[in-house]
Description:
InterPro entries: Pollen_Ole_e1_allergen (IPR006041). The chain is mainly β. 15% of the residues lie in helices and 37% in strands.
Amino acid sequence: xxxRVLLLMALTLYIFPIATxxxxxxxxxxxxxCRAGFETNATFYxxxxxxxxxxxERKTMKVAFYSEGVTDSTGTxxxxxxxxxxxxxxxxxxVKSPIKWCSxxxxxxxxxxxxxxxxxxxxxxxxxxxxxxxYLRDEPLPECHKLLKYYLADSDV
Length: 157
């Protein structure tokens, strides 16, 4: 009998997760040293970059949640988000680069959408990964010409 009760409680929590879930968002921030628009062998990850997570209400687009974090020595950030944000549109955003010569956000790689809900989506993990976001170096490195030529060697372009 006790086993059935425990099984029923576990099933109920799986179907109706607790609304005060804590999500752990993980992602990285890089410096695009070749201004290629993507990560290359010359890319490095930025320590001390500030990243924000912003959730907006779907109907009014008012900010419902905002929090910031900082990247570690590997350029990785970990930000905790309290509560389920099922009625919100959430994204990770670049806030500030600590490197003056690599501080222009790369358009298209300056934010990353993130789902912060368990409601009817089949996601049960509390760890959510965001796409890598990047800044552009002011001037590309001299060796980038060869590197980009190498990347395009197998291209149909």
